[in-house]
Amino acid sequence: TETAWFPHASARLGQEYEDQFDTPDLEAGSATSEASVDISQQIPGGGNLDLSVKHSENDSSGVYKGTTRTALSVSQPLLRGAWHGSEPKYTVTLARLESREARLTQKKRILESVSRGRLSYWQWYEKQKRLSIAGRNKENAQRYLSTARQRYRIGEASVLDTLTASLEYLRALKSEMGAQAEAELARDRISEFLAVQTDACVLDTSESPRIDSLPSASQFLESVERFDPELRVFEIVAERLRLQQRFRKNRLLPELDVNASYSMRSRSGAGANVSEPESKALVSLVLSYSLPNRNERIDVRLSDIEQENNRIREADHRFQLRNQVNNLLRQWNLEMQTIQIADAAERVAGQKLEAAQRGYEVGTVDNLSLIEAQDDYTEASLESLQARIALKEFEVAFDEITGNVLSKFGVKW
């Protein structure tokens, strides 16, 4: 990635000693020392800048000689491997695109995770409301049983009426126990998602869920297309394919390189007070061309096909996205109408239950009619609850596809 632009450096240090055993002179022999440093740096445009410094010393029988060689060269391609066709530029740009795609994928997964948490919350809310309704039914059944027993004592109710009220109380008690188990399971799921203790999860069900209004279909679709990570991925893939195509086409061009070099050599040694450096400069223009093989031409053609396939997949995704948005909006409007009907039915069922309760207490309504009114009210309450939970689930889906999962709660993304 970015390390492709880092310089490459190497250093070498060596020493060699040779003794002359065939001569009695103790100072006979030679010692040679060498030290070199090479630095190579890729430059924008696909060129290379190379610097080499080498110093050698030789001490032979007391005679010292030293040589220092310095070379600086620049090579810049003009056609093949130049600018956007250079290997480092291609590698770094491709890595940046892959990094952007990875960030989009990560963002999508985070939003999906938060959305699952919100859905778990509303499932917990629904189970708690069902538990509240079951508790209300049990209290009513207990009150009906107490009334039936009192009426039986004074001779206004039969044994069958008392048994029926007892059976209704047991049924309400069983329903409450089942609702309690489901509520605890839902609370366990939300606590597991939040990674907190179960006791730390507290839910207030005293108020009904707030239903926010939605923007128009065109505004909603615009928000979806502006955020949708899949569309951003298609854009990144298109950019990556264009980059690959330019790079592959560049591989078909001839090589035309301009080279410039400068070298200098200086010597020093016994008897030389001032070294006399030798320098040489060279500029050359090199042209070479090899016929592209079949695989290179096929790669270029494949780039065109891959770009066309990506455009087709993007158009298909946009079409499916529009259908998804339209379906969600239609379902949202349908659930809004369902809520209005369910609320009206719940109000009517509540009024009928109150009337049946008063009639049962004065003996004008039998227990079967009271049970029927209670069941109707419970069913209407559950339908109203389910409609609101369905709207909250749609709201979670809306926030996820528009990217408002976190920003809706004041979290900047």
Task: List descriptors.
413 residues, alpha+beta
What does this structure look like?
With 413 residues, this protein is α+β, with helices and mostly antiparallel strands. 58% of the residues lie in helices and 19% in strands. The chain is built from six helices and six strands; from the N terminus they run ββββααααββαα. The protein has a six-stranded antiparallel beta sheet, with no helix packed on it. It is elongated and about 140 Å long. The mean pLDDT is 84.
Helix proportion of residues, in percent? 55-70%
Strand order of the largest sheet: 1-2-3-4-5-6
Enumerate the spans where pLDDT stays under 50 for 5 or more consecutive residues.
Answer: none
Hey, roughly how much beta strand do the residues contain?
15-25%
Round the Cα radius of gyration to an integer and report it: 42 Å
Quick one: how many beta strands? Answer: 6
Q: What is the number of helices? A: 6
Order of helices and strands: EEEEHHHHEEHH
Structural category: alpha+beta
C-alpha geometry: elongated
Amino- and carboxy-terminal Cα gap: 26 Å
Largest sheet geometry: 6 strands, antiparallel
**What do the pLDDT scores average to?**
84
